[in-house]
Task: inverse folding
């Protein structure tokens, strides 16, 4: 499972633009500088909605020049920067929003999400933690913080965050998948099985979900169940050599035949060695990659 950062940014962008439109009546009651800023803001929103992003950035920049202490234009520009692949500029604008509105949970959350995407885990965790302190019901910040904690191999805290997400949204498949990974990393295999099963129930044609659960059953030495999962995986991906090797291995164990060693796919080699030694490793994923956590936040997990 991978966090879909583009989708999250697009959703946040759409919502922010709707509520960032200035109150023109109030603006006109003030003075011409504010009028100019409001006009540039409106024009920037229009360009952004039309996906004319460079023009939108130009208009929001003009609005900022007119009203440098108006946080909404930094916020709008940050969102456009995100959409145009300029994360550092977005972080800079969100830092300005936080300076102007230090209790703006959404600004901390947005900044933390970009930092997760950029692999800046410690700053991300700090910002997302502040967002949660300001808004304890912010499930999205918990989701991203949980993903960052997975990257840092802090399995227990990651489980806490994903459990909070699941409390609010029991059918959040991605949260179950990530929590299952954390449980497995702690050697809590039954708990991991429950979460991976939830993923399979929601996505019965997700081959990687069967791989994850099959691997967990193999670690539990429940070879018959592991074999069933690897067989199902092969029905979905008949040419998956990793699954074929794993199935051969667990069937040999199941029928008391000396098993031939299997060759795990490359990104799993370190994970496998660590699991067998009961020493947790990293989640084997990057925020935007499907190594399967699809951030967000995988093959063979």
Result:
């Amino acid at each position: 499972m991978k966090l879909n950062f583009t989708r999250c940014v697009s959703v946040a962008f759409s919502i922010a633009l709707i509520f960032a439109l200035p109150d023109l009546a109030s603006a006109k009651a003030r003075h011409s500088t504010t009028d100019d800023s409001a006009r540039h803001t409106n024009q920037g929103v229009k360009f952004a909605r039309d996906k004319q992003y460079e023009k939108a950035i130009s208009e929001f920049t003009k609005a900022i020049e007119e009203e440098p202490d108006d946080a909404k234009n930094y916020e709008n520009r940050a969102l456009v920067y995100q959409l145009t692949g300029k994360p550092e500029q977005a972080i800079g604008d969100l830092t300005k929003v936080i300076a102007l509105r230090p209790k703006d949970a959404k600004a901390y959350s947005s900044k933390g999400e970009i930092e997760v995407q950029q692999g800046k885990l410690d700053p991300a965790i700090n910002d997302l933690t502040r967002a949660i302190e300001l808004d304890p019901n912010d499930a999205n910040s918990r989701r991203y913080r949980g993903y960052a904690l997975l990257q840092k191999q802090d399995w227990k805290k990651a489980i806490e965050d994903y459990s909070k997400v699941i409390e609010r949204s029991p059918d959040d498949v991605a949260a179950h998948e990530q929590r299952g990974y954390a449980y497995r990393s702690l050697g809590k295999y039954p708990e991991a099985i429950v979460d991976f099963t939830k993923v399979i129930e929601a996505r019965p044609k997700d081959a990687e979900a069967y791989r994850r659960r099959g691997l967990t059953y193999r670690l539990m030495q429940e070879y018959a169940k592991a074999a069933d999962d690897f067989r199902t995986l092969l029905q979905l991906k008949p040419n998956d050599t990793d699954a074929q090797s794993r199935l051969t291995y667990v069937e040999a164990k199941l029928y008391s035949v000396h098993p031939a060693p299997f060759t795990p796919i490359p990104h799993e080699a370190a994970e496998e060695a660590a699991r067998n030694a009961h020493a947790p490793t990293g989640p084997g994923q990057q925020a935007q990659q499907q190594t399967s956590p699809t951030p967000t936040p995988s093959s063979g997990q």
Summary: The chain has a mean pLDDT of 82. The radius of gyration is 23 Å. The CA atoms of residues 80 and 86 lie 9 Å apart. The chain is about 70% helix and 0% strand.
